[in-house]
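Practice record 12: protein with pyridoxal-5'-phosphate.
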Amino acid sequence: MMKKYNFNAGPCILPREVIEKTAAQILDFNGIGLSLAEISHRSKDFQPVIDEAAALVKELLNVPEGYSVLFLGGGASLEFHMIPLNFLEKKAGYLNTGVWAKKAIKEAKMIGEVVEVASSAADNYTYIPKGYEVPTDLDYLHITTNNTIYGTEIHTDPDVPVRLIGDMSSDFLSRPVDVAKYDCIYGGAQKNLSMAGVTFVIVKDDALGKVSRNIPTMLNYKTHVDKGSMFNTPPVVPIYTALETLRWVKKEGGVTAMEKIAKQRADLLYGEIDRNKLFRGTVTDEESRSYMNICFVLNDEYADLQQEFFDFATARGMVGIKGHRDVGGFRASCYNAQTIEGVQALVDTMKEFEANH
Ligand SMILES: *Cc1c(COP(=O)(O)O)cnc(C)c1O
């Protein structure tokens, strides 16, 4: 079979060894003669899995004392509602950088007062706003650190006068994070951590319990902190896969190494996009360019080659490079498990296609 290069945006590429180890544990977990999928989450065999996964998140991101790491269901989309329920008392600020940010804003508005501190909506989210003013009376400022659809990214944790909350669904573990600036970091795991089905949350314990409303039990972070993510049955298989990914990240040199490789991949692909006469990047502000989701389109004079390039790349093993419908063109997602070899294969494909035209 032809080698496939997986550029899917999510669910997406995971290290091959993570898939293989998960597959083996699904057949026979720790040699106990039962599948990982058919044992109790409270068993003595599973508890160490979730404990080690939480400990590795803390170790890899250098999480300060006083934070809890949770593995929950519901996806990032449920967090959009849990965040304001748990943290919004008077007023919250949101940075509007795309569809996911807008969905988070919509949920927050059901709970309380929301101010949009800045937005790049008028330019179809092709950059991350800069130099905006953050009111000092906000309960928190919510940011989407990587905008999966548009290929923009906040590469450093902003200095603002209020507490941060970050949707890190699509750049988690791809760079060091100054966790102390955040009351909460969360995301769906299916873009850099695991298969779909588990949501990671890093929450500052003493930031909880500060709002006056009654929070439904399952939507209250305190419930899950107190029960170590075991209030109800957590998604055990995706948590196991997350553990194997975390072990892999550690083995490969941690988040500093992940960031270095991410830059190498991004430089290689953006370099080709900028050089190749057929293509241009959709994110023109260099600082805003995502290392994780790299978006490009055909230049206007070559616009009719869209389908032809897609077919050409598909025939060379590229998978998942079609751009999101809101942006069009192409998107190559280059998450942690993406190899330089994979990106080079795409670059070679672009060069070959250029030579044909
Ligand atoms: C995919 C994605 C989400 C939605 O995640 P679900 O787990 O599917 O709810 C939210 N935010 C960002 C930045 C995403 O990329």
